């Protein structure tokens, strides 16, 4: 009989910095099921002290700290933060900084955890970034359905207006509940009054963003790191969401941890069949290979011994032996096809076509030519979309065909699924 994933309570380590302990969410909403206490402004100030100014020379020092730390974005693309700031500054003073909390990855909950448990750390980073680059406006960008996160940020902003009147003014803007709502060009287009769709022509937002002005879009975890750097502290922790069963658990790792530590901290006590790393646009890893990831020497700029983008939005899904990886992948690909902007050929035609072929393969009724056809479609789609949305689906499918190769063979030969 196959081993089943079991959930056990793992002790919270003393190393947690970004959130103090485990934050547990249900499978869909941003409502916390279990979490440590949220920090109000008084508790935040007692722990970290007042936020230092980041204007003038202090802003230059913060930019040097961001550059020296090699801080990369935590939203998925892992773009160097210092390079964004330098591009913004070259474009001239003014513009906007956006705290991107529109957590479009369905498996992720780390941004919701930060916004609800440590909102002032995120808002500190937002204020410091705005001061350092001379931005005139600051915005928190959230999904319209993220009720709990919006309420937490609203309370935090009210506290800051009452007790920190010199802080930059912040407004909350709501995004439609859509997979692409957290994409940078979608944010820029929406805040500029245009249709909330990805842009074909990619002029960097740091050069010409909202209403043509320079715009910094930072994930909220990135801003929390900036809030620590502004105080001279090293942001050497990463938040990871572990999806398991009917819950999502947000845990904190150091860059030298093995990634499997996230599973153990989340209560997954049996080695999974495979792990989806990076979310819906990520890659599958076999259970054996996944356990080798991480444990890098201190001082490396690459966390967990893998390229920064591999972790994507900081998501892991542990797949137990009872579930068919091909069927699970087919479900994700169908979701990605339905969530596309339908602006270009790869999204409009390519994703539905590969979703159909993946479903046929998962159902165990493919024709002999279907697998070569699928591989040909993947090659035609890869790198040709208006945005990177189709590329994520291609990456996901290719990894599934490799990791679940025994299942592929059985499904192709109509021998039934190993996991039925």
UniProtKB/TrEMBL annotation:
Protein name according to UniProt: Proton-conducting membrane transporter
Supply the Gene3D superfamilies for this chain. NADH-ubiquinone oxidoreductase 51kDa subunit (3.40.50.11540), NADH-ubiquinone oxidoreductase 51kDa subunit, iron-sulphur binding domain (1.20.1440.230)
Q: Where does the NADH-ubiquinone oxidoreductase 51kDa subunit iron-sulphur binding domain lie?
A: 326-371
Give the similarity note. Belongs to the complex I 51 kDa subunit family.
Could you confirm whether the keyword Iron-sulfur appears in this record? Answer: yes
- Alphabetical UniProt keywords: 4Fe-4S, Iron, Iron-sulfur, Metal-binding
For this protein, the record's InterPro entries field holds:
Nuo51_FMN-bd, Nuo51_FMN-bd_sf, Nuop51_4Fe4S-bd, Nuop51_4Fe4S-bd_sf
């Amino acid at each position: 009989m196959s081993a089943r994933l079991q959930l056990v309570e793992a002790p919270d380590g003393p190393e947690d910095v970004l959130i103090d302990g485990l934050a547990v969410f249900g499978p869909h909403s941003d409502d916390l099921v279990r979490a440590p206490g949220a920090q109000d402004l008084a508790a935040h100030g007692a722990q970290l002290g007042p936020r230092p100014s980041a204007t003038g020379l202090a802003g230059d020092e913060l930019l040097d700290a961001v550059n020296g730390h090699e801080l990369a974005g935590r939203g998925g693309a892992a773009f160097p933060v210092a390079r964004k700031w330098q591009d913004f500054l070259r474009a001239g003073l003014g513009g906007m900084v956006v705290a991107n909390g529109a957590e479009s990855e369905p498996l992720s909950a780390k941004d919701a955890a930060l916004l609800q448990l440590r909102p002032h750390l995120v808002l500190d980073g937002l204020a410091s970034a705005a001061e350092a680059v001379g931005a005139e406006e600051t915005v928190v960008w959230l999904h319209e359905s993220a009720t709990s996160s919006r309420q937490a940020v609203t309370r935090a902003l009210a506290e800051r207006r009452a007790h920190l009147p010199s802080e930059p003014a912040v407004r909350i803007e709501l995004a439609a509940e859509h997979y692409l709502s957290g994409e940078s060009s979608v944010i820029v287009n929406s805040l500029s009054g245009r249709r909330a769709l990805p842009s074909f022509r990619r002029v960097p937002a740091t050069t010409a963003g909202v209403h043509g002005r320079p715009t910094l879009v930072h994930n909220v975890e990135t801003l929390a790191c900036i809030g620590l750097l502004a105080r001279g502290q090293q942001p050497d922790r990463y938040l990871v969401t572990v999806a398991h069963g009917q819950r999502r658990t947000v845990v904190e790792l150091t860059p030298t941890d093995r990634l499997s530590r996230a599973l153990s901290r989340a209560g997954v006590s049996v080695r999974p069949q495979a792990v989806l790393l990076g979310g819906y646009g990520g890659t599958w890893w076999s259970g054996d290979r996944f356990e080798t990831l991480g444990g890098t020497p201190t001082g490396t700029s690459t966390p967990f011994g893998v390229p920064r983008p591999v972790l994507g939005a900081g998501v892991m899904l542990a797949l137990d032996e009872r579930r068919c990886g091909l069927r699970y992948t087919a479900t994700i690909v169908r979701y990605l096809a339905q969530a596309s902007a339908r602006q270009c050929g790869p999204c409009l035609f390519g994703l539905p076509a590969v979703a159909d072929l993946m479903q046929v393969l998962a159902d165990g009724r493919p024709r002999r030519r279907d697998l070569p056809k699928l591989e040909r479609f993947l090659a035609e789609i890869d790198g040709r979309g208006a945005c990177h949305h189709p590329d994520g689906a291609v990456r996901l499918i290719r990894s599934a065909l490799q990791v679940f190769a025994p299942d592929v063979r059985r499904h192709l030969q109509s021998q039934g699924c190993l996991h039925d």
